[in-house]
Design brief:
By secondary structure, this protein is mainly beta. It contains six helices and 41 strands. The protein has a 22-stranded antiparallel β-barrel.
């Protein structure tokens, strides 16, 4: 009996061994025929899975005999299911062709590093906001990009005025003057326009937004201490493109905008037109506006000429005009009396002309000339006081791009002229001229290691009525990309930066530049900083992808420019003896299920201190903790649903007091019928606002003072509209 049992067991084991087989496959891209890496190959019945290597090759072992289903999935490609009968008649490697998913964006080409590289092969850490997110935020705030930036990890849109609604961008907790704002690579924002810049850039014509956090001095020079935000416009294609949006909110905002573009033969064009109207809005019924009465419009035509296949010439002109009036609601209504007198009025005109020549040379080499002239005229009026002036900015950049074997080099020179002329006075007249040369090399040491090194030398002359100063800055910068494996990569970078002195800061903006003395013998601020991150991506299950990016940052600013007050009540700037240090980390998580359901989690920890302070050293109006959660469900060309949640930690005010933390929720829905989409957005439907904690306006009514803005002022907002895409 024992021998019979052993014989039966041997037969069973032998049968099981024969019933298990091996499956070998090579997976390729259906468009390029290139091998596909990181494709998940899953034998569902046996719950066995593997991932394709760099040659697109994958092997599954122990496949049961009979008809079996094997699933092939990868982010950006259409999931495939194939059935095979084992044992296979043909035991050679089976080729699987996977087609790109039309719902996924094509490989992102980074423009801010000016090397025409894909984002995955760029050593400099660049974050992109494009496609779906731009469309979503356009539904929320068609007038400008403030919402787009405020809800991004590591970025903060800081409102600088309770009555005008002006705001500036902070990167990693640092004052807005340390971030370089660009539109298509042109630095035409900042200084006198700094508090209005993000309010004058509409998102309708944007292709993508690129954010470089940390020093970006090699290509962009002064002002890029905290980082660079580059708003990149769409270019015309052979197919006509048309977008129109009409939006209305319950708080009295109306937006009507249109964008059209096309390339035909040797000519092309783009045209953006947008008009915005806003009624004054007083949510807490304290007789002062939380949102000013305003109207503005933007017209931005661009013409493209293609004399041959290697040359593009662009000429564009952007014109924006606006005015807003905030303050006492009776004054805004035209019913001022002795008890109702306070108002703040901003009128602005901005005209920017751009000219660009892009010439492709042999191979991948190219030559580019960029030229812009920007004129910004602004008048700030409050009772018994006017501050106004014209800011003129000229930018010229000439560069050459060389690509040779494992090196991509860009070198060039640029010249920046900036002048502010105060009207009715010369106290704040300033002028600066910067001449700079730069060289950057991206070295592909191997497929796994890439180094980007750059050096910039700037000579800057700046002057006002008190003094004339000349300084030279040598700015090295290096970034390294490590592709540790198919799933893990890391970027490490750092460099030096500087910012020439200016009276136009977030603090002086809040006081309309009253009693601010002209700069006197102050020096440029200098910085050292860097970032380091690690990125991991994988498939957690069939059709469920996961990625995490963990980034650490550090920036130190030496001799920071600090606002002081003298015994006569005047304000002046001086260089502090001790530095400002900002350090912390950002965590970004992304889950995508079947390309339709997406969850984004972003957390920012910022520890920024002014070492020159003797008591509380934390920088004011900066939350130490910020958490962003976004859940999106979308069916392409059908509908889109979005739920957002944001937590903002406590902050210190300029008077040293501490604010409570707060939490807000938002919901968005969009339904598409062919070329027409209807959308509705419930922003901050928990009605989180500062006036729920304490009134922002302090008496007397006729001559009020205002608290620092650390929370929303308008509270809950619902808006909706129609979009037409041609």
């Amino acid at each position: 009996m024992q021998k019979i049992m052993l014989l039966l067991l041997a037969c069973i084991l032998s049968g099981n061994t024969k019933a298990q087989h091996t499956f070998r496959t090579i997976i390729k891209d259906g468009t390029t025929d290139a091998p596909l890496v990181s494709v998940t190959v899953l034998f569902e019945k046996g719950n066995k899975a593997t991932v394709s290597d760099e040659q697109g090759y994958a092997v599954l072992y122990n496949i049961y005999e009979g008809k079996q289903k094997i699933v092939f999935s990868r982010v950006g490609y259409i999931t495939q299911e194939h059935r095979f009968v084992f044992p296979l008649k043909d035991t050679s490697t089976i080729e699987i062709i996977m087609e790109p998913n039309k719902d996924e964006l094509s490989e992102v080409i980074v423009q801010s590093t000016r090397t025409s590289r894909t984002i995955k092969n760029t050593p400099t850490r660049v974050e992109t906001i494009d496609g779906e997110e731009l469309d979503e935020k356009n539904n929320m705030r068609p007038a400008n990009v403030s919402m787009l930036l405020h809800e991004s990890t590591g970025l903060q849109v800081q409102q600088t005025s309770a009555t005008s609604g002006n705001a500036s961008i902070r990167v990693q907790g640092l004052d807005g003057r340390y971030t370089q704002l660009l539109k298509d690579g042109y630095p035409n924002f900042g200084n006198f326009a700094s508090g209005l810049s993000v309010l004058e850039i509409p998102p309708l014509d944007l292709k993508q937004v690129e954010v470089i956090k940390g020093p970006a001095s090699t290509l962009y020079g002064g002002g890029a201490i905290a980082g660079v935000v580059n708003f990149i416009s769409k270019a015309p294609g052979k197919k006509f493109e048309g977008d129109m949006i009409v939006n209305q909110s319950h708080i009295g905002q109306t937006n009507i905008g249109a964008y059209i573009a096309q390339k035909k033969g040797k000519l092309g064009y783009t045209f953006l037109g947008l008009v915005n109207f806003q009624k004054a809005y007083d949510v807490d019924k304290d007789e002062f506006s939380e949102i000013p009465k305003s109207n503005n419009f933007t017209i931005n035509p661009r013409l493209f000429y293609y004399p041959d296949a290697t040359t593009t010439i662009m000429l564009g002109n952007s014109f924006t005009k606006g005015n807003n009036t905030g303050g006492d609601m009776e004054v805004i209504k035209g019913k001022a009396d002795v008890n109702h007198t306070y108002f703040e009025k901003n009128t602005t005109v901005r005209n920017t002309t751009t000219f660009e020549v892009d010439k492709k040379l042999g191979g991948k080499n190219s030559f580019k000339l960029k030229q812009s002239v920007s004129i910004f005229d602004r008048h700030i009026t409050i009772p018994n006081y006017i501050f106004s002036g014209i800011s003129t900015n000229s930018f010229t950049d000439l560069s050459l791009l060389f690509v040779k074997q494992k090196h991509t080099m860009i070198g060039g020179v640029n010249f920046v002229f900036d002048k502010f002329k105060q009207e009715n006075s010369n106290n704040q007249n300033t002028q600066s001229f910067t001449a700079g040369g730069y060289l950057q090399d991206t070295w592909d040491i191997s497929e796994k290691v890439k180094i980007e090194s750059g050096l910039r030398i700037d000579n800057v002359t700046y002057k006002n009525i008190n003094y004339n100063k000349n300084q030279t800055f040598v700015l090295p910068r290096t970034s390294v990309l490590f592709k540790i494996s198919n799933k893990i990569s890391s970027r490490v970078g750092g460099g030096l930066g500087y910012k020439i002195p200016t009276i136009f800061t977030e603090q002086t903006e809040t006081m309309q530049y009253q009693n601010v003395l002209a700069l006197n013998n102050v020096k440029a601020e200098k910085s050292v900083g860097g970032t380091a991150d690690i990125n991991f991506k994988t498939m957690l299950a069939t059709n469920l992808s996961f990625s995490i990016n963990q980034m650490f940052f550090y920036t130190g600013i030496n001799q920071p420019l600090v606002l002081q007050k003298d015994n006569a009540g005047n304000y002046y700037f001086t260089n502090a003896s001790k530095s400002v240090i900002s350090k912390g980390f950002e965590t970004n998580l992304k889950f995508i299920y079947k390309e339709d359901l997406k969850l984004f989690v972003g957390y920012t920890f910022t520890n920024a201190k002014a070492k020159y302070l003797t008591t509380n050293q934390f920088l004011p109006l900066l939350p130490k903790h910020k958490l962003n959660l976004t859940l999106m469900y979308e069916k392409e060309d059908n509908f889109k649903l979005g739920l957002e949640s944001y937590f903002t930690g406590s902050q210190y005010l300029y008077n040293g007091s501490k604010t409570p933390s707060f939490h807000e929720l938002g919901f968005m829905a969009q339904k598409t019928f062919n070329t027409i989409s209807f959308f509705v957005n419930f922003e901050n439907f928990t009605d989180e606002r500062q006036s729920k904690y304490k009134t922002v306006v302090n008496p007397p009514h006729s001559n009020p003072t205002f608290d620092d803005i650390w929370n929303h002022t308008e509270g809950f907002v619902v808006n909706g509209g129609i979009k037409l895409k041609l």
